[in-house]
Design brief:
By secondary structure, the chain is of the alpha+beta class. It binds FE2/S2 (inorganic) cluster (FES).
Length: about 230
């Protein structure tokens, strides 16, 4: 049987199971910690650092840190808000994000975090990277300008034999997300839709159908990101 552990987040008493990732345990207790690369039940990538919290005076990624008995976690402070805001700004300047022209606008986690942290003008210079798009797959349009390298698609989207349909190629500034043409040709509509849905930005788009949800009726048009977790459990 799994062992229950008690911990606090910003003074709020919480419970979780020993070994549970902090970000999931927090959500189960109605506390929102922002994520971009994390998804529950996936091996954590720990790559975006938007989930940074403070534990015993140290900044830690909540998606790679298991909860422990007696842990005192800081999730809500001006310092953490500024770190998270800086990460959002960094992601915006690293890629080429033209929100008004993006089909995921209103359904995009990065954009929603930009609103949540009231990002105005990024503090970093724009990189204006040149990134090629890839429209060669029958069901997927890969808009690399918007990729934030969260690796969700690589970890989740597999063919019937468990082979990843997406993969990274290169490193550093040449790193890019790629799609395996042969495997992509076998994708069902459902899998293509899933790939689009788990992408936290607008990098993976399903072809043929577009703009199903009208502007104004999309996920984050109605509520601030994370507010569902905060409101459902308190
Ligand atoms: Fe924790 Fe990305 S959500 S590092």
């Amino acid at each position: 049987m799994s062992e229950t552990v008690k911990f606090t987040i910003d003074g709020k008493e919480c419970q979780g199971t020993k070994g549970q990732l902090l970000v999931d345990a927090a959500a189960d207790n109605g506390v929102y910690i922002p994520v971009l690369c994390h998804m529950r039940d996936l091996i954590p990538a720990g790559s975006c650092r938007i989930c940074t919290v403070k534990i015993n005076g140290r900044n830690m990624a909540a998606c790679t840190t298991p909860v422990e008995e007696g842990m005192a976690i800081e999730n809500n402070s001006d310092e953490l808000t500024d770190i998270r805001k800086a990460i959002v700004e960094m992601l915006f300047v690293e890629g080429n994000h033209f929100c008004p022209a993006c089909e995921k606008s209103g359904n995009c986690d990065l954009q929603a975090l930009g609103y949540k942290y009231q990002m105005m003008v990024p503090r970093f210079p724009y990189a204006f990277e040149r990134r090629d798009m890839d429209a060669t797959s029958p069901k997927i349009f890969l808009e690399r300008n918007r990729c934030i390298f969260c690796k969700r698609c690589v970890r989740v989207i597999k063919d019937n034999e468990g082979r990843s349909i997406f993969a990274f190629k290169g490193r550093g500034t040449t790193l890019q997300i790629n799609i395996d043409k042969t495997l992509a040709a076998t994708m069902s509509d459902e899998l293509a839709q899933k790939a689009m849905d788990i992408c936290p930005v607008g990098c993976i788009l399903k072809k043929e159908v577009g703009f199903i949800d009208p502007i104004g009726q999309r996920k984050y048009d109605k509520k601030v990101i994370g507010s569902d977790i905060e409101n459902n459990h308190q």
